[in-house]
Every structure is written in C-alpha cells, then in structure tokens.
Amino acid sequence: MLSVIVPVHNGAVYLDRCLKAISESHYTGYECIVVDDGSTDDTRAIAESYGVTLVSLPYGPHGPAYARNAGAQAATQDILFFVDADVLIRPDTLGQIAETLQTAPELAAALGSYD
Length: 115
Prior knowledge:
Elements: E1 2-8, H1 15-23, E2 30-36, H2 43-49, E3 53-56, H3 64-74, E4 79-82, H4 93-103
Parallel strand pairs: 1-2, 1-4, 2-3
C-alpha cells in the first residue's frame, strides 16, 4: 500500500537510525526505497543492510527533489511517503498515514510535523 522513499546524500551518520525506525513500524504493508544521491560514505552499505530497494544516482548529488522523483519512479505502491534520512518516524506513523488516506479518498496528500 505504501512506498516509503528516503532520499539521502552522505547520510551514513544518521541513516541507520532512520531505517531502524521505519523497520520498527507497526504497519507492515510498505516497501522502503532508499535513493542514494551520489554518496561517498557508507550510505549504500547501511541501506543494503536493511534489505531495502536501493536506487543509486550516479554523478550526483542532484539534490533532494531529484532524488525524491527517482524514488517515486521506482515505487510500486499506490501511496508515496517521503521521509528525509535524518528523520525518525514513530511506530504508528505509517499506519496513521495509510488509515487517513484510505478513509478519506478525496485527500490527495497528507503531511506530518516534526517533534
């Protein structure tokens, strides 16, 4: 149902925590796509260790908007959920997004705020 898209450039310092938080989601109907925007650190290895779909953008960085669009192209699910690599979601976040968009099909988008 959800494609969780994480654009990242040289995010080895914080990507592990982001992907751990996603993997601890109570909601399991999602795929996770990490878009590596030309990183030169251990970003790729960290993403690979989580078994996510890894999209590599050569000759980068191209910027977060370009990386988000590349992730959207790779997505196979109906709902796109973008999470920056330095953000930690709560275990109930994905479920809340899925429920909100399923119960209100007239909505085109939903967003959250940072705590």
